[in-house]
From TrEMBL:
GO MF annotations, alphabetized: hydrolase activity, acting on ester bonds; metal ion binding; N-acylneuraminate cytidylyltransferase activity
Binding-site positions, substrate: D19
Subunit structure, as described in the record: Homotetramer.
Organism: Caecibacteroides pullorum
Species classification: Bacteria, Pseudomonadati, Bacteroidota, Bacteroidia, Bacteroidales
Pfam families registered for this protein in UniProt: Hydrolase_3
Name of the protein: HAD-IIIA family hydrolase
PANTHER family referenced in this protein's UniProt entry, alphabetically: HAD SUPERFAMILY MEMBERS CMAS AND KDSC (PTHR21485), N-ACYLNEURAMINATE CYTIDYLYLTRANSFERASE (PTHR21485:SF3)
Keywords, in A-Z order: Hydrolase, Magnesium, Metal-binding
Family named by the database record: Belongs to the KdsC family.
Amino acid sequence: MSTINYDLKKIRALLFDVDGVLSANVIPMSSEGEPMRTVNIKDGYSLHLAAKMGVLLGIITGGRTEAVRRRFLSLGLKEENIYLGSSVKIHDYRDFRDRYGLCDEEILYVGDDIPDLEVMRTCGLPCCPRDAAPEVKAVARYISYADGGYGVGRDVVEQVLKVQGLWMADERAFGW
C-alpha cells in the first residue's frame, strides 16, 4: 500500500463520485431498468466514522437512484451534500466548496472517469482508483491500490483520519 503524498492535515472535506469509485464500474440492471450498485462495507465503515468525527463529506454523482441517496444518508452524510444527477460536476463542487467557505487545497476528491476531470483539476487533492481512466490517472495526485468499489473509499478516508488523529481515536470507532 502506498501513502498519499500531500499534507493531509490541510484536508477539511472529502468528496466522492459513486459509480467506479464507491461502487464497481460494472452495474447490474434490474428487470425494470434500474441500476443496482454494489457497496463496499469497509468503504461504508470509514465514511460513517469520518462523519461521526465531524469530517465534511460529500457525494457528486451523475446517478439518480434513491438507493444511492439512502445509502449515504445512512452513513451520516448530510442531505445537502449528496448531489445526485450531477450533469456538470464542477458546478456542484463549487456549490459545496463555497457553502462551507473552503479553499480548493482543503478538498480531496475521488473520481474515476472523464466527467470527474474538471473537479480533479480544481481540488487540492485529486485521487482515483487503480482502474480509473488514463486521463484521470494523469491528473491524480494519488492513485489507490484498490479498484473502484473495492476499497478506494477506505484507503483515502483511513489515511486522512490517521494523519488527523481521528482513526480509532475513541469509542466512536467501535459502533454504528
